[in-house]
Amino acid sequence: MTFDSQALGRRDRARAFVPELIPEPQDIERTGPLDAKEQQQLDRIHAARDHHQAAKWMRGKALEAAFRRHLYRGEDGQRTRQQYLDDEWDGISESAAYREISEWPLAKAITDAFERPAPDSHVRALVDVTELQGAEAVARWYAELRRHGQQAGRRVTAEVVANLADFLRKGTEPERLEALFVPRQLPPARKPAPAKRPGRGAGEAVTGTVVAHGQDQPGRSFPNLGMSAAGDGTGPAGEAGRWVLSPEHVARLSAWIADGASKAQISPERAADLLLEALTDDTFQHWIAARTGA
Q: What is the pLDDT along the chain (294 residues), one digit of tens a residue?
């Protein structure tokens, strides 16, 4: 029996992807070029890969629809966005939800332009540029970059995509796509100017300081500058007053966040959001306890 690979491909594209299309994992010893049936099996494997990536932008679109239509409010009309995320989205934070919402239009546009989804790191390197250029224009440039990489045998990494983002962010277009493959020359991280060491906890309050657990509601976090839920002026451990970061702490954290953001090719604001999420996670308390014997 012979197989027409083009006919099989058309038949697959005519129906929605379902898990049953993935060939069963089996040990089969074959050599030589792929035959038509094997090529179809490989195409279905790649379809499963792309289906997974496409589902991510669909998830972002679904979140935006739930938020903008206020469908999260529940049967009693009182449910908040975060309560909805806790109930229906495995407890992701609002900031994480809004990141997915901001990324999905570009992820979809890239899938349409390149006929294949882009890795998450590529989308994140370009997402802020869409505010200036529009998702479709950015997606077309990305598709051209990927095709050039395929033709030239060059690997398109997140760093290469960040080079493209730099050009588009400045409102200019790269004269040669090959130039984007030159390693980026990032400026060295600036060290904060030396300052007199203030007394412990004697600095000004920092907006967004993370709070641990109030005494009367264990297991809950309150991002309200270190105050307990009872509003009695006690800090996380029940001490009088509240402890805040000193200017030296702020300077060191700011430099560290900016350096990490540059290496990850994201904005310092997004890196700060990710750090706050990590700090408000219960695992941070266990991390401290493991290192202090508490």
A: 344 545 555 454 444 667 788 888 888 888 899 999 999 988 888 888 888 778 889 999 999 999 999 999 988 899 999 999 999 999 999 999 999 999 999 999 999 999 888 999 999 999 999 988 899 999 999 999 999 999 999 999 999 999 999 989 887 777 788 889 887 655 555 656 665 554 444 444 444 444 343 334 333 333 333 333 344 444 444 444 456 777 767 777 887 787 777 767 677 787 787 787 777 665 566 666 666 655
How many structural domains does the chain have?
2
Q: Is position 87 within any domain?
A: yes
Q: Give 100-119 as a DSSP string.
A: HHHHHHHHHHHHHHHSSPPP
What is the Cα–Cα distance from 79 to 89, expressed in whole angstroms? 14
Amino acid at 223: P
User: What range defines the domain where residue 41 resides?
Assistant: 35-181
In a domain, 1, yes or no: no
Asked if residue 48 and residue 176 are part of one domain, the reply reads yes
Which tokens in the block code for residue 51? 């289906």
Question: Where does the chain have alpha helices with state H?
Answer: 5-13, 36-68, 81-88, 94-114, 120-126, 130-133, 135-152, 158-169, 247-264, 268-280, 282-292
Whether residue 80 is found in the same domain as residue 148: yes
Residue 103 sits in the same domain as residue 162: yes
Of 141, 161, 181, which marks where a domain is finished?
A: 181
For residues 175 and 224, membership in a common domain is answered with no
What is the chain's Cα-based Rg?
25
Is residue 156 within 8 A of residue 149, CB to CB? The reply is yes
